[in-house]
Amino acid sequence: MQGRAGRLITLLSVVMVAACAPSASPATSPTGSVKVAVATSGFDSPLDVTNAGDGSGRLFVVERAGRIRLVKGGALVGRPFLDISGRIASGGERGLLGLAFHPDYPTDPRFFVDYTDSDGNTVVSQFTVSSSDPDLGDPKSEIVLMHIAQPFANHNGGAVVFGPDRMLYIATGDGGSEGDPQGNGQRLDTYLGKILRIDVDVAAGASTAYQVPADNPFTTTAGAKPEIWLYGLRNPWRIRFDNESGDLWIGDVGQNAWEEIDVARAGQKGLDYGWNTMEATHCFNPSSGCDQTGLTLPVAEYDHSLGCAVIGGVVVRDPSQGSLNGGYLFGDACSDNLWLLDPAGDQLRQAVLVANMGRTLSSIGEAEDGSVYATSLGNGELLRISAAAN
Questions:
Q1: Distance between terminal CA atoms of the chain?
Q2: For a designed S-S bond to 219, which of 139, 162, 226, 376 qualifies (C-beta 3.0 to 4.6 A apart)?
Q3: pLDDT tens across 254-295, in order?
């Protein structure tokens, strides 16, 4: 995404340069109401953190270069859980970008990743955990589910998450460059600029590695990719389901002026979030008088005086976290701000600034017990986020 002054703003670069739009006033700022502590360090450009949902308490940290690192008993294990760095193009917005374990893990030993291959294209694959060592993924077990050609080097999306419906959701960017020159966000004949939804529980011996769920919204639309669940996105960086409501929360990185938070309430499908007709709630193409008919607008936005690359977060479901509990916590990779948003209602509203991390934020995720963690790209750290009184 090219800045107004012609400078490249790269979401996943350690050094980020923001092109500033006109100022907006931040919400009430109880900075210090959130405590950010280093849980462990020693990572190489970490981009995601998740858990296996198996009762082990382990955390899995995705490194951009192609390794998944294991945090066990609060300590970083020296041996990677998985190392597929030889298969990956890494750097900038490319690399190993997302991880999700099957909902039945460890009974079903599969886990799923999204990465950029050596040709710069997106690959969604499944692997299996070693039958003799639960702390080791088998790199030889890869089965490719999807291969998506990327026209440019940026805007790869990369999140993979399982929904409460046990389907796998995949976030893709619009293919990159600036302003979505191919119009991918609004096109239904491409996987780019979308949230995809697939069923990975196919019968043994099936001819395909996944199935398209029959209730996907565009299965009978001529020319449409049937895997599409939601569209009109630019570069969704981190999507998470609310473990209580089943709502899907999306942080969509903006162009030169606005960052946005989108939501799909449980069961909502086929929504169009407007890119590249709109950037957040503002006309983009055309710059004024755009047709907003049928578009689903964000529930929060902020301009580039407050940051330049939104990091989608989590709805905190941890009663020990006081005022954080029940709020949607998200951040920005350029300003390192953390905000809390009331998740109720679909009207546009202002989030509350709760902390500045002072680090290059790259993801926010959860442990099995609902505690919140984040990754710091430039510092190579796993961070624990909690209410200051805790």
A1: 39
A2: 226
A3: 999 999 999 999 999 999 999 999 999 999 999 999 999 999
What are the beta bridge partners of residue 272? 231, 295
Q: Is the peptide bond before 106 cis (omega within 30 degrees of 0)?
A: yes
- What is the C-alpha to C-alpha distance for residues 281 and 275, in angstroms, rounded to an integer? 10
Tokens (6 digits) for 120:
């710069």
- The CATH code for residues 34-387 is 2.120.10.30
DSSP string, 39-59: EEE--SSEEEEE--SSSS--E
The whole-model pTM stands at 0.92
Rg (CA), the chain: 19
> Who contacts 78 (Cβ-Cβ below 8 Å, separation ≥6)?
none
Length of the chain: 390
309 by Cβ neighbours in 10 Å (0-12 / 13-18 / 19+) ranks as buried
What is the distance between the alpha carbons of residues 201 and 318, in angstroms, rounded to a whole number?
31
